[in-house]
Amino acid sequence: MTTWLDTLTLHRLPVLQATCTRVEEFRRMPSDQFNLADLSNVVLADPLMAFQVLRSTGRIERTRTFSESLNIEHALMILGANAFFEEFAKLTALESIPTLSQTGVDQIISMMSRSRVAALLIKDWLSLMEEHRVEDCFVAALLHNVPACCFRAESGVDKNFPSLDAMARQAGFLDYKQMIERFIESQRLSDLLLDLLTTPPGFDRRRLLLKSAIEVANMLEQGWWRIEVVEKIIGVSHLLAKPFEVVWNDMIQLILAVARTPQVPGYSLLARQLAAMPEPEQPISQSFLNLSIQWDPANSAEPPAEFDEALSWVVRFMAKDMAQERVIFFRHNAPQGQLSATQFVGLNDDDTLIARPLQLAQHPFFASLGQKAQAFRCLPGQLERLRATFADDFFTRIGDHGFAAMSVVKEGRLLGVFYFDNCTSGKPVDDVVYQQFKTAVSRLCA
Predict the structure, then answer these.
(1) How far apart are CA 183 and CA 196, in angstroms?
(2) Does residue 294 share a domain with residue 267?
(3) Same domain for 347 and 375?
(4) Which of 258, 180, 173 is nearest to 217 (CA)?
């Protein structure tokens, strides 16, 4: 399983032809004209080069603590210009590797281009929330697809895979997360990188945005119009408190910016793939679009009747179309600081989950969830951790079979919380159901 990883530690990987050319130009440059920041930008334009620079600094024991940073310019400072040019004296261009077919080269460069898109997305999104600590997340996004690129380059495999998880299984791992873990450990890369790419994001906005940027970038090859991409951008727009259209248009512009990189013609492959994709007539279900209710909480204390009808539709949709056994909408009573079950399916009126209002002061999970529009899914086996984290007695009334919940927040005002699970069958909330649920509730918040 680790043969290609063992081989990888022994030699240099190929990099983009553009990187070879630019590094050689810097090598010949007079010292008074040499700029480390410019060299850093060249490295950051090539995920395979960025990986090898960080790997080199990680091997220097005396700088191990300092090299935990993912800042490429700092890494180059650790190496020093002379040592950098000596170590990378003979770079090989990826485009001219004889053991790779043109299909294999195209696939590697395509994955690298998606890494660039992910890195630029997280940089842009963090700047929109006025977060200036972007370097670590930028480099983490840039390196996410590097293990897959390395596997292809080392093994010569050039078949198409439906997902990174499928490729990881071909390489002998359970999934791509495990492949990343083994890759980072074997190459002695930063623990910070391992943490950013493999630790669940929880409620951390920076980590949620990083995860979304990587997922969106890697979904794009199958079509920018896919409901999964639209849902992800809706979620990001809520995290950033920015209009969907702003986040969507920024994404398209960043894709085009990467595709138009003149030094790397291969980066345009992603945009060409997108342009060739047939666009369906409706990216989002028309039923979901009808859930967007025109109502300004600042001008009207109570939502219109259409809003209650939309809530009822979501409850019925989750119970009937998605076959979920218990579905509840808890309406928020701001003066009382509590959530009361007003619409539900699969429970009696005297059921312990809904018989009494949930006082937010006594139910920290729901208080935390209601701070902004956000969704949460608990998988089987995770309930004890939630109980320990939130000390919320609501969790003593449900089994460890998994559930999902999402807050309904409009213009900064909490209107309520949806909750659903499958208490009788014990069936967990699967990906398709969870995505449909988030899409429907997101329209209520729009």
Answers:
(1) 14
(2) no
(3) yes
(4) 258
Contacts for 230-238: CB closer than 8 Å, 24+ residues apart: 230/283, 230/284, 230/439, 231/435, 231/438, 231/439, 231/442, 234/438, 234/439, 234/442, 234/446, 235/375, 235/438, 235/442, 236/125, 236/209, 236/212, 238/372, 238/373, 238/374, 238/409, 238/442, 238/445
| Amino acid, single-letter form, for residue 285 | S
- Strand, helix or coil at 58? helix
Query: What's residue 279's pLDDT?
Result: 40
Assigned token pair, 352: 């312990």
* Pair (320, 434) in one structural domain: yes
Structure tokens at 5: 């990883």
- Which residue do the tokens 């807050």 mark? 407
* DSSP 8-state secondary structure symbol assigned to residue 348: -
Q: How many CB atoms lie within 10 A of CB 154?
A: 18
Residue 143 included in any domain: yes
**Residues 375 and 265 placed together within one structural domain of the fold:** no
CA gap 328, 256 in Å, rounded = 43
Q: Which of 136, 131, 135, 119 is nearest to 192 (CA)?
A: 136
Taken in order 22, 28, 30, 36, the sign of the CA dihedral is positive
On whether both 204 and 239 belong to a single domain, the answer is yes
CA 288 to chain centre: 23
Number of domains in the chain: 2
Domain end position, chosen among 246, 276, 306:
276
Please tell me whether residue 408 adopts helix, strand or coil conformation: strand
Structural domain span for residue 229: 100-156+199-276
Q: What is the CATH number for 439?
A: 3.30.450.40
For residues 315 and 348, give the distance between their C-alpha atoms in angstroms, rounded to a whole number.
15
**Which mean pLDDT values do the consecutive 10-residue runs of the chain (446 residues) have?**
72 92 91 85 95 87 57 90 90 90 89 94 93 91 96 82 88 93 92 93 90 92 70 89 86 85 76 51 44 62 80 91 94 94 93 94 92 89 90 92 92 91 93 85 77
How many CB atoms are located within 10 Å of the residue 231 CB?
19
What six digits make up the tokens of 94?
A: 């990826």
Question: Residue 206, CB half-sphere, CA atoms under 13 Å: how many?
Answer: 17
- Would you say 126 and 198 are in contact if contact means Cβ atoms under 8 Å apart? no
Residue 74 covered by a domain: no
Planar angle of CA 331, 231, 371, nearest 5 degrees: 35
